[in-house]
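Q: What structure does this chain adopt?
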Amino acid sequence: QVQLVESGGGLVQAGGSLRLSCAASGRTFSPYLMGWFRQAPGSEREFVASINWSGGRRTYYADSVKGRFLISRDDARNTVYLQMNSLKPEDTAVYYCAASRGSDWDYWGRGTQVTVSS
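A:
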C-alpha cells in the first residue's frame, strides 16, 4: 500500500511563498505520475500540477498557477515538492498530493492547508 504525507502548508501574506512536500512510502511505490490538487471551500477539487515519475520529468500546470508554481521531485527521498511563489488569496485551499499508476489518480494524501491573506 502506498502512503502519501503532505507537509509545508500554513498562513502567508499575498505575494509570499511556500513550499509543499509530499513524502511517499510503500514497498511497491512506482507511480507513473505524481501530482498536486487543491480544494477551496465550496469548490470542487482541481488539478494544480503534475510531474512524470517514470520516463522523464515532464511537468504540467493549471493555467492559474503557470509561472508562479514549480513542481519537482527527489527520487532518492520519494518526495515531490510544490514551490508556490507570488501567492494570491485565491490560492487558499487544502492542497492534496496524489499518485497515478497510469489511468487514474490511485493514491491520495490527507491534505495540507494553505491560507493566503490579503
